[in-house]
Structures are given as C-alpha cells and as structure tokens.
Amino acid sequence: MRRGRGRVNRVLLGLIGVVLFGVGGLVLLGGLDLPAKWHLGLPAGWPWSRPDQVLLPARQRTRWTDQGWWWPVVIAALAVFLLLMLWWLLTQLRRHRLTEILVDSGDGEGAQLRGRALEAALTAESEALDGVDGAGVLLTGRRGEPHVRAVLALAPHADPGTVVRRLSDEAMAHARRSAGLDRLPAEVRLRAVKHRPERVS
Amino acid sequence: MSDEDAERSDTRRLPTLDKTPDGTEGPDGTGGATPAAADAPGTGAADHHRIRRFRSARRVPAALAALVLLAAAGLLLYDVAAVRANRPAMTWRRWLARELGTRHLDNPWVLGAAALAVVLGIWLVVSAVTPGLRQVLPMRPAAPDTRAGLDRAAAALVLRDRAMEVAGVQSVRVAVSRRKAKTHAVSHFRELDEVRADLDTSLGEGLRQLGLAHELRLTVDVRRPKKR
After folding, report:
1. ipTM of the complex as predicted
2. Model confidence over A81-133: pLDDT tens digits?
3. Interchain contact, A168 vs B100, CB within 8 Å
4. Across the interface, do B65 and A25 touch by the CB < 8 Å criterion?
5. Which residues are CB-neighbours of A141 under 8 A, at least 6 positions away?
6. How many CB atoms lie within 10 A of CB B175?
7. Fewest beta carbons less than 10 Å away: which of A5, A56, B144, B224?
8. C-beta of residue B159 within 8 angstroms of C-beta of residue B203
C-alpha cells in the first residue's frame, strides 16, 4: 500500500521532471541559437528553432478559440487535471493506517482484531526489549495481510543486530502467533537517543 | 503483496549473506543471545532476500508538486470560466499572453526561466529514480520477513560508545558515511600504537555487531591532546 504510493509519486514526479526538462531544453536550444551554430538539421515542424521566435505566438494561442468545442474541452480538461492533482495532494497528507485485522480462528468463524490493540501490544513488547529506549509501531497493509512499520530508539550501549533479532524473535513472533497470521512482514528503523560519552567499564 | 513478490522473483544470493553466521558469532559471546536467536540469521540467509536500500516515498516533493499544479490549474480554470461568463479576464492572464507573444527566445528572462525548468526537471527525475533515505543503512536480515535499517547517526553513536571503552581514549569523534566509518580519537595516556591497535579490534568487532548489510570500512586516527 505504502509502496504503491511511493511508486505513484515517483512516476508522476519523473513525468513532470521529463516535461520540464524537455520544454526548458527546447527553449534553451532555440534561444541560444544552437541549431544554427551546430548545423543541426531540424525537422520542419520543430518548435522554437530560432532566437527571434516567441514562446507562444498570438496566432497559435487563438487558433481554436473561435471553434465551439474549444472552451468546453479546455474547461473539462482543466477540471479533470484539478481533481487528479487534488487526489494526489490528499494521498500525501493521509497516513494509511490499519484499523482492524482479520483473525482466522480456524473454526470457520473469523474475528476482528483492532489495529490499535496490536500496535499497542507490539509497542509495549518492543519497549521492554533490552537496549530499546522507545518504540513507535504502525500497522499498514491490508486487513488480510498486515505490515508492520516500527521505529526503535536505541538505548546507550545497545547492540543493533541483537535488538533486531530479538524484536523479530519475540515481539513480532508473539504478534504473528496471537493474530494467527502466516507472515507479518516488518520494516524496522533504528535510531539512537543522543547521549553524552561516558565510560561504562 | 506485490513488492514481496517482486523480491522473491529475482532473488540472488549476495556474497554478504555468506558472512552471516560468523558475523553474528561476535554478539553471541557478549550479548548473551539464546541459541534460538543464533539460529535465526541462518534461516534468514536460507530465505535469501535481496538486501535493498530503504526507499523514500517522496512525499514532500510530491506534495509540493501537487500543490503548485493544483493552484495553477485552479486559477486558470477559475479565470477561463469567468471569461466564459462574460467577465473580463484577470490582469495576469492578459499580461502572460502578451509576454508569451512578444518576448523573443533570446530574452534573458526567457532563457533564465528555461534554465530553471531544466534544472528543476533534472532534480525531479533524479529524485524519482534514486532511493533516497541516505541516512539509513540497511541491515542484514535477521529473520525472513524483517527488514531493518540503522540510522547513520545511531551507528556513529554505537561506535563512539565502543571506542570510549578503550583504555587511554580521552575523547573520540566518529563520522559515519554510507561506506566508511572515520574515527578520530584523542588519547592522553598509553602508547599511541597500542591505543590504535585496541581501537582497531574493538571497533572492528563493533562494526560486525552493527549487523549492516554492507560492512563499513574503518579508519582510525589517534592523536595526543593539544598542549595548553
């Protein structure tokens, strides 16, 4: 789910980048008179090939304005684009969070587990681990296949490798078992709590 | 999930995974991990997930781009609709139409705007293609379904704490880049060479304990404190 948003963002940003780069590059090419200097044989319909041209001649701008279909089409296209951009903006602001998980009890009757409850249990168990100062756990993904995102703050003198191993062996394993899930993928980020240098030995 | 499937489909055994068992032997001695915990990296290596960098969702550039485009499209739509309702066009639109129709391409403003568009376009394409999150170092998988990353600042703090345990070290600065860990220590007693050797072994073990997918290269620099 989150990966999906990342992919959409990257595709759209790349698209905008390519358009900006292309238009800017074409204008620079024509404005600096590079086709003539480099003796490039440009095709006939090439826009902006000489420095004495303008960006958008009035004739081009008003080419279709007297046609009956032009303004309704412009307005419809702008409206669709506007809605698309609104959706894109809102998906950035919304934080996807799982409210409930389907628990398969094995007797044909499913149960629902509140996402917050599992998050709270995971947070408490992570914070109880040796070498963890604080934890924040978020459930994402879908109801049938939840996904855990955790941020752990490492205590001074913690051992990151051991912390991750114990997290997956204890807190994650308990959560997976109690929710009856086959797999519970997790993404863990370890941060450190700033502290002063001191000797322990 | 689709990303998990993608991970499965092109799994390759990375050379770093082969080092997993002996790499985790170190913390077991000092960290007091259970035998069950020691077995976990083995299963992780057997599942051979590819270790990839953490990828940013690029939320901030996306939100900015969406906001700018939304505002521009909204303003234009409002004005087009207003003109259709027999109201005069806004000044900016008449000004823009006039400028676009009269300014030549070699005008400095046009060239400047084009250069800005090119730079912005390159930046957007680069940010779309690169993973981002350069401050997160990916760790070796401890379990099949767990992906972990360690912040560079956290790695530096862990190494600094280890370096402070070496006898003779008065103060130490650790800078962790994405591939290197540079340590500058100040030693006020013992031979510098001895301190350096101790730091080398201690930090080398510390680096292994970090459990990173690509182990950092270590440089150690030891000096005497400045005379006052």
Report:
1. 0.82
2. 999 999 999 998 887 788 888 777 667 677 788 888 888 989 998 888 888 88
3. no
4. no
5. A1, A98, A147, A185, B1
6. 13
7. B224
8. yes
